[in-house]
Amino acid sequence: MRPVAIGSVIDDKYELVGKIGRGGMSIVWLGKDVRLGKMWAIKEVLPSEGGERGRLLRKAIVDEANFMKRLDHPAIPRIVDIIDMGTELFVVMDYVNGQSLGRLLSNRKKPFAQEDVVRWGIELCDVLSYLHAYTTSEGERHQIVYRDMKPANLVLRDDGSVRLIDFGVCWERVGGENNDGLIVGTPGYAAPEQLPATAHPTRLSPEVVIDGRVDVYSLGATLYSLVTGHVPKMSHGKDGVRTVSFVMQPIREWDPKLSEGLEHVIGRATQKDPSNRYQTIEEMRYDLEHYVQLTSEHRKKQMRKVTEFRHWVAAAATCFLCGAAFVGLSIITRATTYEACMREASIASKEAGADGTPSDAEALYCTAIETDPTHVEPFESLLHDVYEADNVFTPDEEARWSAIFRAHEAVIRPNAGYARLCFEAGVCYLCFYGADAAESDGSAWGQAAILNASKSRAWFERVCRTCDVSWERQADGDPLSMTFEKGLQTIDDADVRAADAYLRIAEFNDIKQRAAREGRAAGDEYQRFWNALCQTVRTAPSCIEGVRIRLYLIAFEAIAADDVLGGIYRKALEDGRVDESYDEVRSLLDSVLEGVHDDGLRGFVEAPGNANVYGPIYRYIVSNEGLAYQNVVQTYENPVARTDMATQQSGREEQAWN
């Protein structure tokens, strides 16, 4: 083959129109699809001329390309083609038009705006969450640890969004492996456990754990550089050893105008001890989304009643215990205060203030938690007796709940009721969060259901992580089976299985929404989502009524929505099982509508106190039954079924409740 140059056409598909960059083993070209006119980035892997090292570098580029072909996220460039021309090899990928944040930061000589940095941080949490929860095409979950987050690996596009590039040192963590032995990462941005302090190490010690928390650290360090303008400085000593200088002092020491909340997020993410960082990237994302609420002033405003009551209880306890021996005073005070709070909270008013301040009961339960956060009971009482009391979990309540739970999660995690508490919190989001949102803003109820499923994701992830849920294949050809190990956790087995199904629904909705924005399908995720959906509808009759109707709503919306049902159909077409899929969809829709019209559930919906919350959901499903049937027919193009379904629908419409 003659030397590649501008104007060359690769594999009769891609014309090279310009050179983007060059590395030691590759040249990156801008190429145009000669048939479609679409622009691609084409990496030309040069022939190996460096002996064994050159061969290994070439292999690393090819391995990275094959790895990235499996990934499907809008913030990750897609690998669309690998063309082997013998001596040359070409990797065709998405062309990301923009500049790296590292170069931009260096050129501008000043930090980026805080609001931009927070927005980028949330976007990066999203892509890291995808990697950390990666599911193979066989349904097995592997955690992909990126290991090299830094400004240089982030490309800022013209639309203001960021893309993550350079996946050369990713590690796919399978099973209980601690690490792969490799010492990788960029000094200053890499977590301490990635780069041992011992002199000239060649491999990581087997007991060093490399997991998603190293990405939490690196993201925190990256946000620190972007918002302060300070980056790691490299130097070489007389002995030739490279050292890095990067002392991360609180960001407001550089700029007092920066947010106290963002300072808190970055400070927690960059703790040297992994156990003191955010334990999941989802926790970090939540705090980034609510960083304004992490200020001391906001906490004072939200918890004013809690503080006032705490002072009152402390004074009463002091008077009551003034004659007690000093050695046992603190223990007795703590126990008495906790018990007094729980007792008073059970009979206190659950009505929130007109300005959204916590109710007396909420303030008392929060005081009990602050007094002794080792108990699960006050957390559960907050959910059941306060937030679910009016069948609506408001955004203000959700913000206060998240703040107090996250403040004490490390303490409550060893409790045997931790997994059960997380499951109940997930159900609270699934069932009650935003219950009045659709009616107030005019959005579709199915959209609210999808939002709730996504909101509940982090809680069901906690359940599955605590109970060590995994999917394994006993032998080649056998279906995957779910296994879990609860240890001392008191959660029911059925709730563990339900948490995994709810989690798969929540994960799919996130993936589906990202895919919709990019105009692409979500691949095998549709089948996993469909399996989880069928499982939840089968188990719905055993759920509490509020959860039951919400699950029916999610399933109904999946069938009634063109994009979701279309993806399920395309997956069936790909697998050669369209007829079977059609029967499954009809059966699921019949089960949903049979459940919705059940007299018991209908009575729950009509009951005083429930009609305002669940009535609109019921009416949404009943009034759109015809559209759901029509969507199934149009999607699967079955004229016989169209007649059959119309007959069924006419009978159901006579029972519709108004």
Helix/strand layout:
Blueprint (H helix, E strand, L loop, with lengths): L8 E2 L3 E9 L3 E8 L5 E7 L5 H18 L10 E6 L4 E6 L3 E3 H8 L5 H19 L10 E3 L8 E4 L4 E3 L6 E3 L38 H17 L4 E4 L5 E4 L5 H4 L5 H10 L11 H9 L6 H7 L1 H17 L5 H20 L14 H12 L5 H11 L7 H18 L5 H15 L4 H5 L3 H11 L1 H10 L3 E4 L6 E4 L9 H26 L6 H15 L5 H16 L1 H14 L2 H19 L2 H8 L4 H13 L1 H12 L2 H15 L5
Antiparallel strand pairs: 1-2, 2-3, 3-4, 4-6, 5-6, 7-9, 8-11, 9-10, 12-13, 14-15
Helix pairs in contact: 3-4, 3-7, 4-6, 9-10, 9-11, 10-11, 11-12, 12-14, 14-16, 14-17, 16-18, 16-20, 17-18, 18-19, 19-20, 20-22, 20-24, 20-25, 21-22, 21-25, 22-25, 23-24, 25-26
What do the pLDDT scores average to?
A: 80
Large-scale geometry: globular
Distance between the termini: 74 Å
In the sheet with the most strands, the strands line up as 1-2-3-4-6-5
| Poorly predicted sequence stretches spanning 5 or more consecutive residues | 320-335, 437-447, 639-658
Number of domains: 4
What's this model, at a glance?
With 658 residues, the protein is of the alpha+beta class.
Attribute tags:
Phosphorylase Kinase, domain 1; 6-stranded antiparallel β-sheet; alpha+beta; Transferase(Phosphotransferase), domain 1; 53% helix; 15 strands; 11% strand; 658 residues; 3-stranded antiparallel β-sheet
Task: Give an overview of the whole structure.
The longest helix is centred in the C-terminal third of the chain and has 26 residues, at 493-518. The model is unreliable at 320-335, 437-447 and 639-658 (pLDDT under 50). The chain folds into four domains: 9-95, Phosphorylase Kinase, domain 1 (2-Layer Sandwich), CATH 3.30.200.20; 99-198 and 205-294, Transferase(Phosphotransferase), domain 1 (Orthogonal Bundle); 299-415, no CATH class; 417-473 and 481-658, no CATH class. 38% of the residues are buried. The chain has a six-stranded antiparallel beta sheet with strand order 1-2-3-4-6-5, covered by helices on one side. Strands 7-9-10 form a three-stranded antiparallel beta sheet. Strands 8-11 form a two-stranded antiparallel sheet. With 658 residues, it is an alpha+beta fold. Helix content is 53%, strand content 11%.
